[in-house]
Amino acid sequence: MKTLLRAALMGSALAFAGFGLAAAEDMPGMPADHMMMAPHGAMLSLSAYGETKVAPDMATISTGVVTEAPTAQEAMRLNRERMTQVIAALKRQGIAEKDIQTSGLNLSAQYNYESNKPPELRGYQASNQVTVIIYDLNRVGQAADAVVSAGSNQINGISFGLRDPQAAEDAARVEAVRRLQAKADLYARALGKPIVALRAFSEGGGYQPTPPMPMMRMAAAEAADSSTPVAPGQLSLRIDVQGTYELAK
């Protein structure tokens, strides 16, 4: 009876140890690179990333017109007239109609507030925002100046991007896999255990356009031979990879 009880306790302990090992593998606090024992041989879990930098080939500007008037109809009329001029100015800059999209249209009552007094209606505010895609980066500053001259009193931001990020992403993928394999080879040599096979592989990351950056210019455009300076810089694309390698016993 004691022998059977001792065997049952040992079996429970081994099962608990196995459960603890499996739980530790899935634990979010586990380091990205770690090794665990497996029936066939040690399993080495590694992570790496690849990154590539590329010049953007498109820009997106958010601009708009805000007008106020005593009546809602007048606020909308003034806004419509000025936005029509803004869109015409964009087209004169060579921007196609399909690359100009309304992104916000709003009309709201405006009140004056004083202590111990009910709100007093002072008029209405109309707002019309458009998002503009520009493919000639040399004309981004000129386009910004042109819309301001035409009546825009808001430039909310500018972002740069890629029309087709596939090539840049693939270059980052190749670099990520190269780094992952180099790391695996290094661990294998240090441990003295050759790699048997890659048992699991996953990818994360990828292309994300840069968020809009403030680009405020409320004054009239400068002389025709100058424009607001805009520096596109470079975009950074990163691909993260994870791999699990089986090592020889």
For the structure shown, list the relevant keywords.
disordered N terminus; alpha+beta; four-stranded antiparallel beta sheet; 249 residues; elongated; 4 helices; Alpha-Beta Plaits
Kindly describe this structure.
- The structure is a single chain.
- This protein is of the alpha+beta class and 249 residues long.
- The chain has a domain at 58-162 and 224-236: Alpha-Beta Plaits (2-Layer Sandwich), CATH 3.30.70.2970.
- It contains four helices and eight strands; from the N terminus they run αβββαββαβαββ.
- A hairpin with a 7-residue loop joins β4 (100-112) and β5 (120-134).
Q: Which regions have little confidence, pLDDT < 50, spanning 5+ residues?
A: 1-31, 215-225
Spatial shape = elongated
* Spatial strand sequence of the major β-sheet: 1-2-8-7
- Structural class comes to alpha+beta
Assign a percent range to the helix content.
25-40%
The separation of the N and C termini measures: 38 Å
What is the H-and-E element order? Answer: HEEEHEEHEHEE
The CATH C-level name of one domain is Alpha Beta
Beta-strand content bin:
25-35%
Give the radius of gyration. Answer: 31 Å
Mean residue pLDDT: 83
CATH topology of one domain, by name, is Alpha-Beta Plaits
CATH architecture of one domain: 2-Layer Sandwich
Number of helices: 4
Give me the CATH superfamily of one domain.
Answer: Protein of unknown function (DUF541), domain 2
Number-wise, the strands total 8
Largest sheet features: 4 strands, antiparallel
